[in-house]
Write a structure and sequence with these properties.
The complex is a heterodimer of chains A (209) and B (364). By secondary structure, chain A is an alpha+beta fold. Chain A is built from 8 helices and 6 strands, in the order βαββαββαααβααα. Chain B is mainly alpha-helical and 364 residues long. Chain B folds into 2 domains: 69 residues, no CATH class; 251 residues, Fumarate Reductase Cytochrome B subunit. The chains are: A alpha+beta (209), B mainly alpha (364). β2 of chain A pairs antiparallel with β1 of chain B, so a sheet runs across the interface.
């Protein structure tokens, strides 16, 4: 089974925020919560780089490890999902996550946290696929429809890739080779997926060819 | 800098014109205003911006300065208004996770279970410490109504916080396998909300408690003797003490004041996330909170043991406010003598039963 991964190509991202908008619209994400965001380094300076960030669906997910009620689970495709019925709103996943993915809608005075919300890789939640409960709590389940995440599908420059990790890596490797081995760094891959396991890293093979 | 700003004002150009003129800005004398670095948000905050601009010219495709920024944990530009949304990767979370899951939970759990075990063994060994002499039937006021209210406010809030805290820290490993996800989560949601609302009450009550009991907990030379003899706990020897003995004073200063205030302060940081605290601060607060509370709970077990099954008559003192004269003489002889000889008990206020000696309000 495919291992789903996100990859944002910093050489291509133009900070159009199309992915953010696509996500918001696709899932009708509540006000105050952003499942995806674009961060720009050196904004307005030559050489600025933008990166689109959401939950990376880590291999060894810190959110899963620290959750006091064990509300997270991982699908066969490596997508990290959570059960909002179990979530107690403690915020531990937010402390642990390197990417700032978990978000909490405010549920009361003094910043009382509601049920955590985060990117689902457009894979819904534990409820029955396409059910009203699933839609209401987690948004659309595009994976069950045979589609890839809306953000990546919408990306105008195909900077954001989402899908089978092997295919994503192949596309990216080809790009890096065509760039002459430059711009091979993939944001968050080390943090999310650990050291590469199969195949040679693109940067190491590129200069020889 | 000032010269540059003046020059900027004089040119009368908008920032756009400046940034458009920038690509030509090769190594230039810094005094020349026309070729100064563009004054944008990031170029002011981020010294790497200029480095990346230069690097891009010299080695196209080499983005090392940018990737250093990605790992720097500094916030960069984003339209997302969330707290720390501009931070690309924060590394503290993984450290916190390792510390919590691999150190605090196993070590804290062992410590707490160890304290429970020691209490149990001690009870099996010594049992309840009975009064050696027969009760006289004459009662002495030991705790005023106010003192008891303060004590029980702290005690009840503490118990609620301790039980809910234990479930949140260890429940995943102990209760979850028994209860299953649905029931355990339902229970934990309830306890977490109680924890969040009872916490501030405890914080205030602990401060009031400190001022209520500090006078009689001031360390004296007598306490040193008490400690040297371990309070007679093991030998069974009679060791006189004031209103509070050495052990109670240690609990007061380290447990109530030290851990109580530390736990309250760190807990308040976690309880009110609406002040835009960073994750780094909350990770630190969580570690401080859990360490101080596990130590406090372990110590509290000793206090609860001595106040209930450990010593006959101790629970009644805090329940009714009165103790038998025989009890006072046996456990707090100096205090008993003070009360007898001066006839000015420490406990202030509260009704005095007919049998008890008349007391006046006076501090010592």
């Amino acid at each position: 089974m495919a291992r789903m991964k996100f990859l944002c190509d910093a050489e291509r991202c133009i900070e159009c925020n199309g992915c953010v908008t696509a996500c918001k619209q696709e899932h009708e994400v509540p006000w105050g919560v952003n499942r995806r965001r674009v961060v720009t380094i050196n904004d307005g300076v030559p050489g600025e780089k933008s990166i689109s960030v959401a939950c990376m669906h880590c291999s060894d997910a810190p959110c899963m490890a620290v959750c006091p009620v064990d509300c997270f689970y991982k699908t066969d495709e490596g997508v990290v999902l959570h059960d909002k019925d179990l979530c107690i709103g403690c915020g531990y996943c937010f402390y642990a996550c390197p990417f700032g993915a978990p978000q909490f809608p405010q549920a009361g005075a003094f910043g009382l946290r509601g049920k955590m919300d985060k990117c689902t890789f457009c894979a819904g939640g534990p409820e029955k696929d396409h059910s009203a409960e699933e839609w209401q709590k987690y948004g659309r389940n595009r994976l069950a429809e045979g589609k890839l995440p809306a953000c990546a599908e919408m990306c105008s420059t195909k900077a954001l890739l989402g899908g089978d990790g092997d295919i994503v890596a192949d596309i990216y490797r080809t790009r890096v080779l065509k760039r002459g081995g430059k711009g091979s760094e993939a944001y968050g891959w080390g943090s999310a997926y650990g050291p590469p396991t199969g195949g040679a890293p693109a940067a190491a093979t590129a200069p020889k060819s | 800098m000032t010269a540059w700003l003046v020059a900027f004002a004089l040119t009368g150009f908008a920032g756009i014109a400046w940034s458009q003129s920038q690509p030509a800005a090769a190594p230039a004398p810094p005094a020349t205003p026309a070729k100064a670095a563009p004054q944008t948000f990031d170029s002011v905050l981020n010294p790497n911006a200029a480095e990346q601009a230069k690097r891009q010219q010299a080695q196209p495709g080499n983005n090392a300065p940018v990737w250093r920024d990605v790992r720097s944990e500094k916030p960069y530009y984003t339209t997302d208004r969330g707290v720390e949304a501009g931070v690309l990767i924060q590394s503290g979370g993984e450290t916190w996770r390792q510390r919590r899951n691999n150190q605090i939970i196993p070590i804290g759990g062992a410590l707490f279970l160890g304290a429970v075990g020691i209490g149990l063994l001690f009870y099996l060994w010594k049992g309840t410490m009975k009064l050696k002499e027969r009760p006289t039937g004459r009662l002495m006021p030991r705790f005023s109504g106010f003192e008891r209210s303060v004590h029980w406010t702290v005690a009840i809030t503490f118990s609620v916080l301790a039980i809910s805290g234990l479930v949140m820290l260890f429940g995943k490993y102990v209760l979850l396998p028994i209860f299953g996800h649905t029931l355990f989560a339902w229970l934990t949601i309830l306890l977490k909300n109680m924890h969040n609302f009872v916490g501030p009450v405890f914080a205030i009550a602990v401060v009031i408690m400190f001022f209520t009991f500090v006078r009689d907990n001031w360390p004296t030379v007598r306490d040193a003797i008490w400690f040297a003899k371990a309070g007679g706990l093991l030998s069974g020897e009679h060791v006189p003490s004031g209103r509070f003995n050495g052990g109670e004073k240690v609990w007061f200063w380290i447990g109530v004041l030290g851990f109580g205030v530390t736990a309250s302060a760190s807990g308040l940081v976690l309880d009110f996330p609406n002040f835009e605290q960073t994750r780094g601060l909350m990770q630190l607060a969580n570690v401080v909170h859990v360490v101080s509370t596990v130590l406090m709970m372990s110590m509290a077990l000793g206090h609860i043991y001595m106040g209930t099954v450990g010593v006959e008559g101790a629970f009644n003192a805090m329940k009714t406010g009165y103790v038998d004269e025989a009890w006072a003489k046996e456990h707090h002889e100096y205090w008993y003598n003070e009360v007898r000889n001066v006839a000015t008990p420490h406990a202030s206020g509260g009704p005095v039963p007919v049998a008890a000696p008349q007391n006046k309000e006076e501090g010592v």
